[in-house]
Write a structure and sequence with these properties.
single chain
Protein backbone atom coordinates (compact mmCIF):
# COMPACT_ATOMS: atom_id res chain seq x y z
CA UNK A 1 0.00 0.00 0.00
CA UNK A 2 1.44 3.38 -0.99
CA UNK A 3 1.65 5.89 1.91
CA UNK A 4 0.38 9.31 0.85
CA UNK A 5 3.01 12.04 0.69
CA UNK A 6 1.28 14.24 3.21
CA UNK A 7 1.43 11.41 5.79
CA UNK A 8 5.14 10.98 5.19
CA UNK A 9 5.68 14.72 5.63
CA UNK A 10 3.74 14.78 8.93
CA UNK A 11 5.75 11.81 10.23
CA UNK A 12 9.04 13.45 9.31
CA UNK A 13 7.96 16.67 11.02
CA UNK A 14 6.92 14.74 14.12
CA UNK A 15 10.24 12.88 14.19
CA UNK A 16 12.13 16.15 13.84
CA UNK A 17 10.11 17.71 16.67
CA UNK A 18 10.74 14.68 18.89
CA UNK A 19 14.48 14.93 18.24
CA UNK A 20 14.53 18.66 19.00
CA UNK A 21 12.54 18.19 22.24
CA UNK A 22 14.79 15.33 23.27
CA UNK A 23 17.88 17.43 22.66
CA UNK A 24 16.46 20.34 24.67
CA UNK A 25 15.46 18.06 27.56
CA UNK A 26 18.90 16.44 27.60
CA UNK A 27 20.47 19.88 27.66
CA UNK A 28 18.28 20.96 30.55
CA UNK A 29 19.10 17.81 32.50
CA UNK A 30 22.81 18.26 31.88
CA UNK A 31 22.58 21.90 32.98
CA UNK A 32 20.71 20.88 36.13
CA UNK A 33 23.38 18.31 36.95
CA UNK A 34 26.19 20.86 36.57
CA UNK A 35 24.39 23.79 38.18
CA UNK A 36 26.06 24.63 41.50
CA UNK A 37 23.95 24.31 44.67
CA UNK A 38 22.21 27.52 45.68
CA UNK A 39 19.46 28.84 47.91
CA UNK A 40 16.24 30.05 46.33
CA UNK A 41 16.95 33.76 45.71
CA UNK A 42 13.85 35.35 47.27
CA UNK A 43 14.03 33.36 50.49
CA UNK A 44 17.82 33.69 50.56
CA UNK A 45 17.57 37.47 50.43
CA UNK A 46 14.89 37.51 53.10
CA UNK A 47 16.96 35.29 55.37
CA UNK A 48 19.96 37.59 55.10
CA UNK A 49 17.82 40.64 55.78
CA UNK A 50 16.38 39.04 58.90
CA UNK A 51 19.79 37.86 60.04
CA UNK A 52 21.21 41.36 59.74
CA UNK A 53 18.60 42.58 62.21
CA UNK A 54 19.53 40.12 64.97
CA UNK A 55 21.76 42.05 67.39
CA UNK A 56 23.22 38.94 69.04
CA UNK A 57 24.07 37.10 65.81
CA UNK A 58 27.77 36.94 64.91
CA UNK A 59 27.97 34.59 61.93
CA UNK A 60 25.79 32.59 59.54
CA UNK A 61 27.22 29.94 57.22
CA UNK A 62 25.28 27.64 54.89
CA UNK A 63 26.53 24.74 52.79
CA UNK A 64 24.66 22.47 50.39
CA UNK A 65 26.26 19.30 49.04
CA UNK A 66 29.51 20.44 50.61
CA UNK A 67 29.47 23.77 48.74
CA UNK A 68 29.51 26.97 50.80
CA UNK A 69 26.56 28.98 49.48
CA UNK A 70 26.47 31.67 52.17
CA UNK A 71 28.99 33.05 54.65
CA UNK A 72 28.11 36.21 56.48
CA UNK A 73 29.57 37.89 59.57
CA UNK A 74 27.87 40.52 61.68
CA UNK A 75 28.65 43.25 64.22
CA UNK A 76 32.38 43.37 63.58
CA UNK A 77 33.01 39.61 63.64
CA UNK A 78 35.49 38.18 61.11
CA UNK A 79 35.94 34.70 59.66
CA UNK A 80 39.17 34.24 61.62
CA UNK A 81 37.55 34.94 64.99
CA UNK A 82 37.21 32.05 67.41
CA UNK A 83 33.72 31.23 68.61
CA UNK A 84 33.00 29.87 72.06
CA UNK A 85 30.86 26.80 71.36
CA UNK A 86 29.46 26.69 74.88
CA UNK A 87 27.42 23.46 75.16
CA UNK A 88 27.81 22.66 71.45
CA UNK A 89 31.15 21.37 72.77
CA UNK A 90 29.23 18.33 74.00
CA UNK A 91 28.61 17.22 70.41
CA UNK A 92 32.36 17.43 69.72
CA UNK A 93 33.13 15.43 72.86
CA UNK A 94 30.66 12.79 71.63
CA UNK A 95 32.54 12.58 68.34
CA UNK A 96 35.84 12.18 70.22
CA UNK A 97 34.35 9.28 72.21
CA UNK A 98 33.38 7.63 68.92
CA UNK A 99 36.90 8.09 67.56
CA UNK A 100 38.39 6.65 70.77
CA UNK A 101 36.18 3.57 70.31
CA UNK A 102 37.24 3.28 66.66
CA UNK A 103 40.91 3.54 67.63
CA UNK A 104 40.60 0.92 70.37
CA UNK A 105 41.24 3.25 73.30
CA UNK A 106 37.75 2.49 74.65
CA UNK A 107 36.06 -0.91 74.55
CA UNK A 108 32.36 -0.12 74.60
CA UNK A 109 29.80 2.54 75.46
CA UNK A 110 28.45 -0.08 77.88
CA UNK A 111 31.59 0.14 80.00
CA UNK A 112 30.81 1.14 83.60
CA UNK A 113 32.62 4.29 84.60
CA UNK A 114 33.80 2.79 87.90
CA UNK A 115 36.79 1.25 86.13
CA UNK A 116 38.03 4.75 85.18
CA UNK A 117 37.58 6.35 88.60
CA UNK A 118 38.63 3.79 91.24
CA UNK A 119 40.04 6.61 93.38
CA UNK A 120 36.52 8.00 93.75
CA UNK A 121 34.28 4.97 93.30
CA UNK A 122 36.43 1.99 94.24
CA UNK A 123 35.44 1.94 97.88
CA UNK A 124 31.82 2.87 97.53
CA UNK A 125 29.06 0.48 98.46
CA UNK A 126 26.69 2.21 96.01
CA UNK A 127 26.26 -0.25 93.10
CA UNK A 128 24.10 2.18 91.09
CA UNK A 129 26.86 4.79 91.02
CA UNK A 130 29.39 2.22 89.85
CA UNK A 131 26.96 0.95 87.21
CA UNK A 132 26.78 4.28 85.33
CA UNK A 133 28.03 3.67 81.80
CA UNK A 134 29.74 5.79 79.15
CA UNK A 135 26.47 5.67 77.23
CA UNK A 136 24.62 7.06 80.24
CA UNK A 137 26.99 10.04 80.22
CA UNK A 138 26.59 10.56 76.47
CA UNK A 139 22.80 10.61 76.77
CA UNK A 140 22.56 12.61 80.02
CA UNK A 141 21.06 9.65 81.89
CA UNK A 142 23.64 9.10 84.61
CA UNK A 143 21.07 9.50 87.40
CA UNK A 144 23.40 11.93 89.20
CA UNK A 145 22.14 15.31 90.32
CA UNK A 146 22.81 17.94 87.66
CA UNK A 147 25.80 20.27 87.84
CA UNK A 148 24.20 22.66 85.33
CA UNK A 149 21.91 25.64 85.82
CA UNK A 150 21.68 26.63 89.49
CA UNK A 151 24.33 24.05 90.49
CA UNK A 152 26.88 25.14 87.88
CA UNK A 153 28.68 27.85 89.86
CA UNK A 154 29.26 25.67 92.91
CA UNK A 155 30.63 22.89 90.68
CA UNK A 156 33.17 24.96 88.70
CA UNK A 157 34.32 26.65 91.91
CA UNK A 158 35.06 23.29 93.54
CA UNK A 159 38.64 22.08 93.94
CA UNK A 160 38.06 18.82 92.07
CA UNK A 161 35.43 18.82 89.32
CA UNK A 162 35.44 15.07 88.70
CA UNK A 163 35.05 14.19 92.37
CA UNK A 164 32.32 16.80 92.76
CA UNK A 165 30.29 15.26 89.90
CA UNK A 166 30.76 11.68 91.09
CA UNK A 167 29.69 12.48 94.63
CA UNK A 168 26.44 14.22 93.69
CA UNK A 169 23.30 12.52 95.04
CA UNK A 170 21.69 9.86 92.87
CA UNK A 171 18.29 11.31 91.92
CA UNK A 172 17.34 8.71 89.27
CA UNK A 173 18.42 5.28 88.13
CA UNK A 174 21.28 5.18 85.59
CA UNK A 175 19.86 4.85 82.09
CA UNK A 176 16.55 6.34 83.22
CA UNK A 177 15.30 9.87 82.67
CA UNK A 178 17.32 12.67 81.11
CA UNK A 179 19.11 14.97 83.56
CA UNK A 180 20.99 17.61 81.58
CA UNK A 181 24.36 18.07 83.24
CA UNK A 182 27.62 19.45 81.91
CA UNK A 183 29.32 17.39 84.57
CA UNK A 184 28.40 14.22 82.66
CA UNK A 185 30.23 15.51 79.60
CA UNK A 186 33.19 16.50 81.74
CA UNK A 187 33.45 12.93 82.98
CA UNK A 188 33.73 11.88 79.33
CA UNK A 189 36.70 14.21 78.92
CA UNK A 190 38.28 12.70 82.03
CA UNK A 191 37.69 9.18 80.66
CA UNK A 192 39.26 10.14 77.31
CA UNK A 193 42.28 11.53 79.17
CA UNK A 194 42.76 8.34 81.17
CA UNK A 195 42.04 5.90 78.36
CA UNK A 196 44.19 7.54 75.68
CA UNK A 197 47.06 8.80 77.78
CA UNK A 198 46.60 12.17 76.04
CA UNK A 199 44.85 15.33 77.00
CA UNK A 200 41.45 15.80 75.38
CA UNK A 201 42.95 18.73 73.46
CA UNK A 202 45.87 16.67 72.10
CA UNK A 203 43.52 13.81 71.19
CA UNK A 204 41.13 16.19 69.42
CA UNK A 205 43.95 17.87 67.52
CA UNK A 206 45.49 14.58 66.36
CA UNK A 207 42.38 12.60 65.47
CA UNK A 208 39.85 15.28 64.52
CA UNK A 209 41.38 18.66 63.70
CA UNK A 210 44.28 17.43 61.58
CA UNK A 211 42.22 15.07 59.38
CA UNK A 212 39.61 17.81 58.88
CA UNK A 213 42.23 20.44 58.13
CA UNK A 214 40.96 22.74 60.87
CA UNK A 215 42.56 24.42 63.86
CA UNK A 216 41.59 23.94 67.46
CA UNK A 217 43.08 25.86 70.34
CA UNK A 218 43.51 24.90 74.00
CA UNK A 219 40.53 25.80 76.15
CA UNK A 220 39.64 25.86 79.84
CA UNK A 221 40.84 23.08 82.14
CA UNK A 222 39.72 21.97 85.58
CA UNK A 223 41.99 22.21 88.67
CA UNK A 224 43.46 18.77 87.85
CA UNK A 225 44.31 19.85 84.29
CA UNK A 226 41.49 17.99 82.50
CA UNK A 227 40.10 19.93 79.58
CA UNK A 228 36.54 21.08 80.11
CA UNK A 229 34.31 18.41 78.58
CA UNK A 230 31.14 20.08 77.47
CA UNK A 231 31.76 23.81 77.55
CA UNK A 232 34.15 26.60 76.56
CA UNK A 233 35.65 24.87 73.50
CA UNK A 234 36.68 27.27 70.70
CA UNK A 235 36.44 26.79 66.94
CA UNK A 236 36.03 29.15 64.01
CA UNK A 237 32.63 29.10 62.25
CA UNK A 238 34.24 27.42 59.23
CA UNK A 239 35.63 24.70 61.47
CA UNK A 240 32.15 24.23 62.93
CA UNK A 241 30.87 23.81 59.38
CA UNK A 242 33.45 21.06 58.78
CA UNK A 243 32.15 19.23 61.86
CA UNK A 244 28.64 19.30 60.39
CA UNK A 245 29.91 18.20 56.99
CA UNK A 246 31.61 15.23 58.63
CA UNK A 247 28.23 13.98 59.80
CA UNK A 248 26.77 14.40 56.32
CA UNK A 249 29.68 12.47 54.78
CA UNK A 250 29.19 9.54 57.19
CA UNK A 251 32.43 10.32 59.01
CA UNK A 252 34.66 10.33 55.93
CA UNK A 253 36.99 13.01 54.56
CA UNK A 254 38.38 12.08 51.17
CA UNK A 255 39.69 8.56 51.58
CA UNK A 256 40.07 8.82 55.34
CA UNK A 257 37.44 7.55 57.75
CA UNK A 258 37.80 10.06 60.59
CA UNK A 259 35.01 8.53 62.67
CA UNK A 260 33.11 5.38 61.79
CA UNK A 261 29.84 5.58 59.90
CA UNK A 262 28.40 3.35 62.58
CA UNK A 263 29.16 5.94 65.25
CA UNK A 264 27.51 8.66 63.19
CA UNK A 265 24.39 6.52 62.92
CA UNK A 266 24.36 5.67 66.63
CA UNK A 267 24.86 9.30 67.64
CA UNK A 268 21.75 10.43 65.80
CA UNK A 269 19.35 7.86 67.24
CA UNK A 270 16.94 9.49 69.73
CA UNK A 271 17.58 7.90 73.12
CA UNK A 272 15.91 10.28 75.55
CA UNK A 273 13.94 13.50 75.66
CA UNK A 274 14.19 16.79 77.49
CA UNK A 275 11.36 17.14 79.98
CA UNK A 276 11.44 20.91 79.48
CA UNK A 277 11.55 21.30 75.68
CA UNK A 278 10.39 17.76 74.70
CA UNK A 279 13.21 17.68 72.14
CA UNK A 280 15.01 14.41 71.55
CA UNK A 281 18.63 13.73 72.39
CA UNK A 282 21.10 11.14 71.15
CA UNK A 283 24.83 10.89 71.83
CA UNK A 284 25.47 14.58 72.47
CA UNK A 285 23.22 15.74 69.58
CA UNK A 286 19.75 17.25 69.70
CA UNK A 287 17.10 16.45 67.10
CA UNK A 288 13.74 17.81 66.04
CA UNK A 289 11.62 18.41 62.95
CA UNK A 290 11.56 21.81 61.24
CA UNK A 291 9.65 22.65 58.05
CA UNK A 292 8.99 18.95 57.50
CA UNK A 293 12.66 17.95 57.71
CA UNK A 294 14.54 15.95 60.32
CA UNK A 295 17.17 18.24 61.81
CA UNK A 296 20.12 17.18 64.00
CA UNK A 297 22.03 19.87 65.84
CA UNK A 298 24.73 20.84 68.27
CA UNK A 299 23.39 23.57 70.54
CA UNK A 300 25.31 25.96 72.74
CA UNK A 301 24.23 28.69 75.14
CA UNK A 302 23.38 31.98 73.51
CA UNK A 303 22.80 30.62 70.00
CA UNK A 304 25.83 28.57 68.93
CA UNK A 305 24.48 26.00 66.45
CA UNK A 306 25.59 23.37 63.99
CA UNK A 307 22.45 22.23 62.13
CA UNK A 308 22.69 19.10 59.96
CA UNK A 309 19.81 18.28 57.60
CA UNK A 310 20.64 15.04 55.74
CA UNK A 311 17.71 14.96 53.30
CA UNK A 312 18.74 18.38 51.94
CA UNK A 313 22.52 17.76 52.23
CA UNK A 314 22.45 20.96 54.24
CA UNK A 315 24.63 22.30 57.06
CA UNK A 316 23.91 25.63 58.76
CA UNK A 317 26.19 27.21 61.37
CA UNK A 318 25.34 30.17 63.55
CA UNK A 319 27.44 31.79 66.24
CA UNK A 320 26.09 34.41 68.58
CA UNK A 321 27.09 36.48 71.57
CA UNK A 322 27.76 33.95 74.36
CA UNK A 323 27.18 36.53 77.07
CA UNK A 324 24.10 36.58 79.29
CA UNK A 325 21.72 39.44 78.74
CA UNK A 326 18.30 40.55 77.73
CA UNK A 327 16.92 39.17 74.51
CA UNK A 328 18.72 35.83 74.67
CA UNK A 329 15.49 33.79 74.61
CA UNK A 330 14.07 35.94 71.84
CA UNK A 331 17.27 35.47 69.85
CA UNK A 332 17.09 31.71 70.21
CA UNK A 333 13.54 31.69 68.87
CA UNK A 334 14.62 33.95 66.01
CA UNK A 335 17.36 31.52 64.95
CA UNK A 336 14.93 28.60 64.88
CA UNK A 337 12.47 30.79 62.96
CA UNK A 338 15.17 31.69 60.45
CA UNK A 339 15.86 28.00 59.91
CA UNK A 340 12.25 26.89 59.64
CA UNK A 341 10.74 29.69 57.58
CA UNK A 342 13.64 30.85 55.43
CA UNK A 343 16.74 28.67 55.18
CA UNK A 344 15.15 25.22 55.03
CA UNK A 345 12.54 26.22 52.41
CA UNK A 346 15.25 28.09 50.46
CA UNK A 347 17.39 24.94 50.39
CA UNK A 348 14.43 22.72 49.48
CA UNK A 349 14.35 24.06 45.91
CA UNK A 350 12.08 21.30 44.61
CA UNK A 351 9.37 22.34 47.04
CA UNK A 352 9.80 26.11 46.98
CA UNK A 353 7.34 26.79 44.13
CA UNK A 354 4.71 24.68 45.89
CA UNK A 355 4.98 25.96 49.45
CA UNK A 356 6.95 29.15 49.54
CA UNK A 357 6.17 30.97 52.80
CA UNK A 358 4.50 34.36 52.73
CA UNK A 359 7.27 36.89 52.04
CA UNK A 360 5.26 39.61 53.75
CA UNK A 361 5.66 37.86 57.08
CA UNK A 362 7.07 40.28 59.64
CA UNK A 363 10.45 40.06 61.27
Amino acid sequence: MRVPGWVRRVCRAGLLLWCVCGTLMAGELAAAETRPPALEPTLHARAMDRASHLPRLRSLLVSIDGVLVEERYFHGTRSSDWANLKSASKSVISMLVGIALDQGYLESVRDPIGKYFPEYLGGTDDPARNAITIEDLLTMRSGLQSTSNRNYGRWVQSSNWVRHVLTRPMVAVPGGRMIYSTGSSHLLSAILTKATGMSTFDFARRYLAEPLGISIRPWMRDPQGIYFGGNEMYLTPRAMLEIGELYLSHGQVGEEQVVSERWIQLSLVPRTQSRRSRREYGYGWWMRSLAGHRVYYAWGYGGQFIFVVPDLSLVVVTTSSPLPGRGRGEHLRAVYDLMEHDLLPAADTDAVPLRRPDTTRGR
